[in-house]
Amino acid sequence: MPELADRVLACTVGIESTTDGNAFSGSGTVISSDGHILTATSVVPRDAGEVTVLFPDFIRRPATVVAVDDAMSTALIKVDAGDLAFLPLARELPEVGDVAFSAGDVDNVMLANGRASFSRGIVSGIYAVSKQGEAIYEGDVIETTAAVNPGSDGGPLVDSHGRLCGVISLSVSPLRWQGVAVPTKVIVNRFAPFASGRVPAAAALTASQVAAPPPLIGLRRTADTLVPHLVGIDVERTWKPEQLPRISWEEQRRTITDWDDLAATTRRQRFAAFANVARAMDVNQLLRRPPGMVTGIVVSPDGFVLTSLFNVGDDTAFVAKTTGQPRMFTAGEPLEKLLAEPDGGYEQKPNTIRKLTVALVDGTRHEAQIHARHEPLGVALLKVDAKALSWFDLAAVSTSPQLGDPVAVLGYQASAQARPTFNTGIVSAPARNRGQQFQTDALLNYGNSGGPVFDAAGNFLGVAAAPIEPDTVLGRIFTLPQLMRWTRAPNSGVGLVARADRIRAVLEELKQGRSFERIPGPFLGVQADESRAFGENVVVGGVAAGSPAAEAGLKKGDVLLEFNGSELRHWRDLTERVGAAKAGDVVLLKVQRKGSGPRLVIAGRDIETADDLEKLKKSLKPGDTFEGTLSTDDARDFKAVLREQK
Amino acid sequence: MSRHRGLRRVSYGMTWITRVACVVWMACVVAPNSVVNARAAPAPEATPDISALCVQVRPAFVFIAGGSGVLIRPDGLMLTNDHVIENRRTFDVRLGDGRSFKAKVLGRDPVGDLAALKLDMPEGETVPHLDLGDSEALRVGDEVLAVGNPFALGVLDQAPTFTLGIVSAVHHTQGTYTECIVTDAELNPGNSGGPLVNMAGEVVGINGQISTRYGLRSNTGLGFAISSRQIRLWLPLLEAAAGGEVKHATLAGLDFESRDRETAGSVVVKDVADGSPAADAGFLVGDRIVALDGAAVANGHRLAGLLGIYPDGQRVAVLVRRAAGDATLAVALDAARRCRVGLDLGRPRGAELLPVVEGVDARSPAELAGVVVGDVIVAFGGRRLEFSSRDERKAFDRALRTSINVGDIVPLTVRRGDGEVELRMVAK
Questions:
Q1: A96: exposed, middle or buried (C-beta count within 10 Å: 0-12, 13-18, 19+)?
Q2: Which of A136, A542, A618, B322 is 20 to 30 A distant from B222 in Cα terms?
Q3: pLDDT band at residue B130 under the 50/70/90 scheme
Q4: Is A591 helix (H, G, I), strand (E, B) or coil?
Q5: 3-state SS, residue A388
Q6: Residue-wise over B161-192: b if at least 16 C-beta within 10 A, else e?
Q7: Percent of chain B beyond pLDDT 70?
Q8: How far apart are CA B319 and CA B287, in angstroms?
Q9: Are A39 and A26 in contact, with CB atoms under 8 Å apart?
Q10: pLDDT for the residue numbered A416
Q11: A569 contacts B100? CB cut-off 8 A
Q12: How confident is the model at residue A243 (pLDDT cuts 50, 70, 90)?
């Protein structure tokens, strides 16, 4: 791969251009030895004046604009040079699942070492886009998992033959948030300089193919077996995403010019009511599902469909109290008006699902119902009224994920001719959330959550649960700013997958309509003290009210030393031992409770408070005799009766 | 489709990846880290056994605070980022093999974002470790594995996260990280301080920063790691620092254009301050610097980057080209002394968040450069300032206080009235 990187980077250039008063920068690719360079209109716009090209090894050359086609987001420029290294153009589209590479002058990287940045990925999708927002390109785009960042636009997407197969654009599809490129196939056919033959469209295929590594071949083969069972799910809620407010709190706040001059207390007073709502709206906005179809997989011939619980989970919207409807902000709208009302005049309402529609591989659409949910796994079972479906038999699952193994995930694509999206990665951690899920660095996003995850040996490994979610990050309660930054980050490379072996174990129950709020099994009711999670001891951070632990008398700060006589050294030791026990088991916990000083132990009970004494009295009958000691031992025993969590 | 125009690079910010666990060094066989021989394409590339590598690396990983670390010696020497340890001196840490230890901070480099710690363990006991690899042997395109604790997911189940990528660029400057490795292995908050490992299982870098977008603190395919070359230079000093800081070195008194984009292949010495270390070392005005410790100095940006990796007291050899012929100058680098530039900047405000000068200290470098109250700083150190958040602006204010050293020569552009004025500030 370093050889290929060298070849690509020799042809990747940085580009700066100016129009009347504006400066643009990005990347480009040399496509002929006499200096033609292909780039994007976001780097060299139609009215660009001065254009400078930064070549490898710090060589700068002025360029002239040959042609600009806004409809294709593509520009062709030329420098006066000869004998330049160049990339041949691909005349055809690559295939989904092919290896692909991106390069570009991101983060001023060429300034330091004279070469652009290079990233490896695959072609993760090929689909049509239509005009949206600023982008006016219409047609097929090539989506990639290779890195695409500001500065990459105009740069090369290189196919497995080492050819330029796309011009990178920073536009992203709403559901996927991944980098895309305008295919050279389209450019060669439609862009005037090529169509007229003024520029040689593509050199003969000189580059040799980069062989797909064996895992990728296996992953594509496995994908082919799963594609027939893939479905798209249209989740229709009370309010559509485009009906909900889109202006961010932070942007609104910036419109208040004197904000920074206000004393902190004044700020707090003036904005107290509104600020919380506004921030919550920001979070709501960030977590909002973009429009489009999510993914699922058929798991029975009679219409059961597995998907991510995230896809059909709760959602909320902020509505105006006066109308009960979402109200759009307009940019620059004075916040003071809203501040006059308590909570900014808004309230949070559930944005409930009105209709679920499942689109099968044959193009038919069926209304679906949520049949059962499994919270710890993060999956939902849907039911459509259909028969004799192409389905994947979970009973065939016999493998669990292995650390470091290559995996891939499929995502549904709505257009009939498009193949499902295909993202690859490795198993980052084989067990998360008490073994219910595993973790992958394959990019998970709004589009492919609910999709099947599998390995190169033909094994179905699980269902893409979701990008990181608040309740999966240690069950922590996040503050709103943390929520904004941490949760549901699409394509972060930290994705959780419901394990197929665990789904198989509960599938029959799910089919019978049973939902699971937590993992079935015995429950003790202690919470870890995470701040001391790396220490040598198992420290109790909290005790659930009414739990077996509370009834046994455990307290926050207790150090758990032994469980039924076996030593506890890590929190995981405790969860494993509790998991291996049964509801109804009486377990003996040796606990260290420091700082309480000597205490009376009467009839085997610790007597530290008047309450303890009352309890002791109640447990005794008149005439009973008992022994007592004054104990100075920090360690003491507690008996807890495990039970199913209510 | 939403569109981000090439116009600005502000739509992403840099963020520390503090929620990262650190990695441990493991004893590994040193092997050439080339994984591919593509010369005979399309022969399939040798596919490294990633699963085996993960298993090999895991025991030397260290969970520490909100980040990651790695053991690099059997006696319990570990590395992490300085921003992971903040100002604490001792930590409870847990190794990838499940054992818990107390760890004590040996030494810190807050500018280079590196910290060395030592596990508290009985004499003679050893821990798993990873050897330090050679970051200079890395080639763009080489596969690398990152280990960390992103989003603190592994705190309770004791399992670190492994992500696979390639080297995207080397010798890159990102903030105070200079000569750093750029990787597309996924890094997220929590990966900070964790190791970037080559296919031979050696630590070639310590992961510490990522580029972010859309206001999300998560991976975009651009991660930055401190190179093992830099780590090697610092280790002996960090170990001997008794918990304190080790200062960065500077080449005081040497004036060169650090953001020059026009020339290539060398750096022209514009000025040498009288009586300065640069003068003592024998630099002359007009010298063309072509190499530093064997590394080709292509331009001022690279020279500034190279100078950024040395600790106080380091001696370097500088190859200069002059009319009389090439000369190699032996230079003893000085401890960087922070310079008060003498600027009082207003709080971030307006949509631009640009710094507005509210005060200039008498006879300060800022005043001597000609900065006046009311100026709006629009470019600094050769770079246009663009802030997409108050945090980014605060980071600039912090850098202004902490990363300008005596001897630095900083170009800046201020907006004054309707026009812009270019100024040059000499830090004294």
A1: buried
A2: A136
A3: very high
A4: strand
A5: coil
A6: bbbbbbbbbbbbbbbbbbbbbbbbbbbbbbbb
A7: 85
A8: 10
A9: yes
A10: 65
A11: yes
A12: confident
**How far apart (Å, rounded) are the C-alpha atoms in residues A427 and B163?**
8
pLDDT at B9 (0 to 100): 24
Helices (H) and strands (E) in chain A, counts: 13, 37
pLDDT at A262: 61
pLDDT in tens, A396-427: 888 899 999 999 999 998 776 778 999 999 99
Chain segment A141-174, per-residue pLDDT in tens: 999 999 998 889 999 999 988 899 999 986 666 6
Single-letter residue type at B61: F
Q: Distance between CA atoms of B98 and A210, rounded to whole angstroms?
A: 41
Using alpha carbons only, what angle is made at residue A356 by residues A350 and A362, rounded to the nearest 5 degrees? 160
Query: Is B388 a catalytic site residue?
Result: no
Cα(A639)–Cα(A637) distance, rounded to whole angstroms? 7
CB B193 within 8 A of CB B68: yes
**In which element (H, E) is residue B419 found?**
strand B419-426
- Which amino acid is it at A177? W
Which run of H or of E encompasses B198?
Answer: none
Taking the CA of residue A251 and the nearest CA in chain B, the distance in Å comes to 8
A619/chain B closest Cα distance in angstroms? 39
Taking an 8 Å cut-off on Cβ atoms, the answer to whether B158 and A260 are in contact is no
**A116/B contact by beta carbon, under 8 A:** yes
> Among A50-54, A281-285, A565-569, B284-288, where is mean pLDDT lowest?
A281-285
End-to-end CA distance of chain B: 50
Cα separation, B357 vs B343, in Å, equals 7
Q: What is the mean pLDDT of residues B329-342?
A: 81
β-bridge partners, B80 = B115
The residues, any chain, with a CB within 8 Å of residue A253's CB and separated by 6 or more, are A259, A278, A335
Instruction: Write out the two tokens for A38.
Output: 């292909």
A535 contact residues in B (CB cutoff 8 A): 92, 100
Mean pLDDT of A127-142: 76
- Residues 441-460 in A contacting B (C-alpha not used; CB under 8 Å): 441
Mutate to test the interface with A, among B7, B37, B297 (most CBs of A within 10 A): B7
Give the number of other Cβ atoms within 10 Å of residue A47's Cβ: 12
Please indicate whether, in this complex, the C-beta atoms of B160 and A24 are within 8 angstroms of each other. no
Per the document, the length of chain B is 428
- For chain B, count helices (H), then strands (E): 7, 27
Quickly list DSSP for B6-55: TT-STTEEEEE--S--B---B-----------GGGTTSPPP---HHHHHH
Q: Band of the pLDDT at B5, cuts 50, 70, 90?
A: very low
ipTM of the complex: 0.86
B6: confidence class by pLDDT, cuts 50, 70, 90: very low
Whether A341 has a pLDDT exceeding 80, the answer reads no
Distance CA A548, CA A585 (A): 11
Q: Which of B68, B82, B109, B113 is catalytic?
A: B113
Provide mean pLDDT across the span B349-365: 84
Element (H, E) at A444: none
**In this structure, is the dihedral angle defined by the CA atoms of residues A161, A166, A167 and A172, taken in order, positive or negative?**
negative
Least confident of A145-149, B161-165, B251-255: B251-255
Q: In angstroms, rounded to a whole number, what is the distance separating the alpha carbons of residues A37 and A13?
A: 9
With 50 as the cut, is the pLDDT of residue A564 above it?
yes
- Between CA A270 and CA A267 the distance in angstroms is 5
In a 13 Å sphere around the CA of A141, the CA atoms on its Cβ side amount to 28
Handedness of CA A459, A460, A465, A466 (dihedral sign): positive
Q: Contacts by A506-509 with C-beta closer than 8 Å and gap 24+?
A: A506/A374, A506/A377, A507/A299, A507/A381, A507/A394, A509/A372
B351 vs A59, A147, A254: nearest CB: A254
